[in-house]
Amino acid sequence: MEGVFGRGSWVANSVLFGLYHVHQPWGILDSILSGLLYTYPAYRYRSTWMSIILHSAQSVFFAFLVLGVVLGLA
Predict the structure, then answer these.
(1) Residue 26 · residue 56 · CB < 8 Å
(2) Which among 13, 14, 40, 48 is positioned nearest to 29, based on CA atoms?
(3) Half-sphere exposure of 29 (CA within 13 A, CB side)
(4) Mean pLDDT of the chain
(5) How confident is the model over 4-9, as a mean pLDDT?
(6) Mean pLDDT, to the nearest integer, of 48-69?
(7) SS (H, E, C) 18-60
(8) In terms of residue numbers, what domain contains 38?
(9) Which residues of 15-49 are buried (b: 16+ CB within 10 A; e: fewer)?
């Protein structure tokens, strides 16, 4: 990606991340903005682990939120 897009490769990756979520057309823009949050750390630290951690943290947060609502704790 960096060979084609240069320093803006993380922006191109975020657009591709948004387009990957085309099955949810109402959320493409949100996915692109989230993609910016996920792809910049991967670009900055040259590792996908930061993106994996951020994406997983979001999922874990919502899992605990749903669990709290179901159990009546929230």
Answers:
(1) no
(2) 14
(3) 1
(4) 86
(5) 87
(6) 89
(7) HHHCCCCHHHHHHHHHHHHHHHHHHHHHCCCHHHHHHHHHHHH
(8) 2-71
(9) bebbeebeeeeeebeebbebbbebbbbbbeeeeee
Q: How many domains does the chain have?
A: 1
Q: What pLDDT, on the 0 to 100 scale, is given for residue 70? A: 92
- Rounded Cα distance, 20 and 18, in Å: 5
Beta carbons within 8 Å of 19's beta carbon, 6+ residues apart? 28
Q: Which two tokens stand for residue 16?
A: 């591709």
pLDDT beyond 70 at 74: no
What digits encode the pLDDT tens for the residues 10-42? 899 888 888 888 888 888 888 888 888 888 888
